Task: structure prediction
Amino acid sequence: KAGVTQTPRYLIKTRGQQVTLSCSPISGHRSVSWYQQTPGQGLQFLFEYFSETQRNKGNFPGRFSGRQFSNSRSEMNVSTLELGDSALYLCASSFGTSRHEQFFGPGTRLTVL
Amino acid sequence: GQQLNQSPQSMFIQEGEDVSMNCTSSSIFNTWLWYKQDPGEGPVLLIALYKAGELTSNGRLTAQFGITRKDSFLNISASIPSDVGIYFCAGPRNTDKLIFGTGTRLQVFP
Result:
């Protein structure tokens, strides 16, 4: 069965621009979570969507937003990009039950110039 | 943000040696997950633990859920070059919000 896919894999933007990243979960998974990974802060939770509803949210500014569609695919958006937003953005999917096992995609490497 | 503490931060070992690493928290977790990440890729789930004291193996990997629920351990036996990478522990907060450890970077020399 296909794994989690993320597009694009690499992205270069300039400060002030906005960006949209896409994630397709494993078939049958209803929960999609997003994480930001940087050398300084490690892996930080952004938000989680389950059945098109945001179920959890991390401590990130409102410039970071997301949504989930009826087919469980998810997008995250970052507006007014800052240099510090340069990171690997990872999407993970799970059944969304109490077993908590999340499966990650390869990530989108965002560079903000 | 909150993170779990992992030690050691990095390890340089020779092929064939056994490896031990641990993960500690100031608060209790009911699940521990161990992931491995290769450069430029997403983390791959290695082992999931759900019960205090539980010992689970996946090939040459063995992980244990600490009895206090505040720690977990990962052992790799007879290391090989493809074991190189960063190993993360993780525990859930609020359903599917995972808190990740600081990572242990493993380097294996032939």
Q: What stands out?
A: The CA atoms of residues 85 and 94 of chain A lie 26 Å apart.
